[in-house]
What does this fold into?
Amino acid sequence: MVNAMANLSTLGRRIRFYRTRNGMTLDQLSAACDTATSQLSLIENGKREPRLSLLGVIAEALGVSVSDLLREEAPTGRDALEIELERAQEGPSYRELGLPALRPSKSMSDETLRTLVGLHRELDRRARQAIATPEQARRANTDLRLQMREIDNYLPEIEALADEAVATVGHTAGALTHRTVAEMAEHVGLSIVHTDDLPHSARAVVDMEHGRIYIPPASIPGGHGLRSLALQAVAQTVLEHREPVDYADFLRQRLEASYYAAACLMPRSSAVPFLEEAKRDRAIAIDDFRDAYGVTHEAAALRFTNLATQRLGIRLHYVRVAGDGTVAGAYENDGLPPPLDATGSTEGEVVCRFWSARRAFARKTRTTEHYQYTDTPAGTFFEATQTGIGSDEYSITVGVPYAESKWFRGRQTPVHETSKCPDVSCCRRPADGLAERWTGRSWASPRVRPYLFAPLPHGTYPGIDDRELHEFLQSHADDSPIPSNGAV
It folds into this structure.
């Protein structure tokens, strides 16, 4: 099909360009091609797709090749502007305004046309910057969490792509080396370049034109390993991601890229047998899984959620909690009721102080995981929690229903807590008499979280300053890439 090779509007304009250059009228070209003038008119106006056989006849009559007609660029600068205006008026941002489409006439000056196109570019830029309100973003995040719960947090298509990638470079088991990650990038036409001048808001940048992945020269705060950063960048090519059209699309792409990176770092071909053996030994432990692949505890916990239900038959929950008890990330398919707001979102909500995710902060020694059983209105759950410190204190918890605890190390723990949340009498309401005792007799200065007053991150990729990003890419465009020598 022609429209798979070139935009019909561009094709039509290229035919008209060569026809007028040859001094031919539409009637003369139709006679030379033995086809109706009305049909050629529709083709030139981008309203009809010609058969390849007819396209060959047209090209011969015009004295050009078919490839000349199918080139992607418009024949003139004026045509390029008219095509861009046409496409912009067909987009959702313009249609939402309810205004009629304005078709450029021959009498419209190039200056007027450039002004109209410039207005549409700015309209599109602003629409992308205001890609979602905070409420829309929370709803999009909630929808994605619920979608992943429906499929047990397992994406078989991405698993297959990751399996293929690690097999191509001959990786079979254990930690993926930095050199191997560089080879995986090279396999899809990308080279890894280390630089210390990345945009302040970016963890990694991909220059698709020059085939480069820019990452820092050393690991950055927050536990994001450079191997994972590089593989997430590779994922953008492997998964054919484009600029996100909205915030939901941005979240989906981010999840898929992270999933691909984890599936490469902990391939199911070796991870599943490793976990199956641990299950047979009744000694599943996230810290063992972490150490076997040289990843962070959080990465191992999240990867376990991908494989536990589909490959081990274990339903579970995962939660990352900040030091103040607020949820930073969560997943569950085992019935544990997470704290939710009115929109169904759990991020930013406070978990019960009796959950393992918060009790672990009270320990004086935190070198090992904290194990406990927690009675809840939904049943009893076994949980293992590891604390850590990045830009702030946090905890990572993986938990399962009581019946599944038999497969896990730490199940002998005597620690047992009871949570009645969401009942406010559990841990929110003061004990009898305390409210009356101190109301009107106390004052406190709250530790206000700065993000409460910050607008939702905006930009083509939310949170990334477009100007800073483009200036960075331009400053490195003419650089000769420095080979990574495997030192990702």
